[in-house]
Design brief:
single chain; elongated; mainly alpha; 5 helices
Amino acid sequence: MTGFLKASILAVFLSGCAALNSEPWPKAGAGGMAEMAPPADDVAGALRARMESARARGAEQFAALDFAHSQSLLNRLERERSGQLDLDADADAARLNGLMANIERFLPPTRRAMGGSGAR
């Protein structure tokens, strides 16, 4: 009887702890709680913008494997920044910078309007 009582009290206590947690859980495979709000990092932000620009130019089609690798490297870089592993993050930022240069070689050039005409 005492074993049943202890198990019941433990179950009630644990369910109460789970109900009081106000933070939403991350999606499956999306990492831990640190990725819910990554810290502001200029280097990671610039690399993220560069990746978005490459995606808009068709990086997923022209350099699919390298682009997938660059996405995982950017996630790793942001995790290292949030974990204050600055030396590792700097090394991964340099790797990602080189990988983005390689990806951009395969992409078609961007079109820019010259002289305001907008069409060529």
